[in-house]
């Protein structure tokens, strides 16, 4: 759903990417640093129940990570490996966020809600894999009510407000994410099934196979 604002976001990030590029840092380094920062914030602070500060740290590194595509564009350092690294690190970051929430909730005695967080983690992986596999088979799969950007926004906003003491917001958000992710998987299955039934798509391994991302450029980079 938020894919529609990516062109505008790219124009905003380009000047920042130019400034970062002048420091000599590579797009790959930005990707890795961003992922490590997100994972550290999620796996160190969330398990301790520090949902607000964990959200602040994670958000800062998510925003930093969004610069990798901008730096790649302005430096011309674009390759398929960069796209592969970016997508893979996104999965690591997502897993860390929901694993951290799960551990924090379980330690707080909220076992059932921790189970919902685990379901959100798994269903999010399936959402991304369904698109990657479909595109690898030559189908289009740009559908879904809850792609990565939407899932991150809902989870982090809810975790932040929970850390500020707002009751029930994290529970409502996680249950909503579980439902929306399930619907998204169904939407992608339906879209691919319709194309397969109509004989659309070349089963030759075509397609970029890139899972959905948040604010990332679609072109490959190093």
From TrEMBL:
Gene3D superfamilies: 1.20.120.1760. Its cofactor is Mg(2+). Its EC number is 2.7.8.-. The chain crosses the membrane at residues 29-46, 52-71, 111-132, 152-178. It catalyses: a CDP-1,2-diacyl-sn-glycerol + 1D-myo-inositol 3-phosphate = a 1,2-diacyl-sn-glycero-3-phospho-(1D-myo-inositol-3-phosphate) + CMP + H(+); 1,2-di-(9Z-octadecenoyl)-sn-glycero-3-cytidine-5'-diphosphate + 1D-myo-inositol 3-phosphate = 1,2-di-(9Z-octadecenoyl)-sn-glycero-3-phospho-(1D-myo-inositol-3-phosphate) + CMP + H(+). Pathway: Lipid metabolism; Phospholipid metabolism; phosphatidylinositol phosphate biosynthesis. Keywords: Cell membrane, Lipid biosynthesis, Lipid metabolism, Magnesium, Membrane, Metal-binding, Phospholipid biosynthesis, Phospholipid metabolism, Transferase, Transmembrane, Transmembrane helix. Its main location: membrane. It is a multi-pass membrane protein. InterPro entries: CDP-OH_P_trans, CDP-OH_PTrfase_TM_dom, CDP_ALCOHOL_P_TRANSF_CS, PIP_synthase_PgsA1. Residues 199-222 are annotated as: Disordered. GO terms for molecular function: magnesium ion binding; phosphotransferase activity, for other substituted phosphate groups. HAMAP family: PIP_synthase (MF_02241). Belongs to the CDP-alcohol phosphatidyltransferase class-I family. This is Phosphatidylinositol phosphate synthase. It comes from Actinomadura darangshiensis.
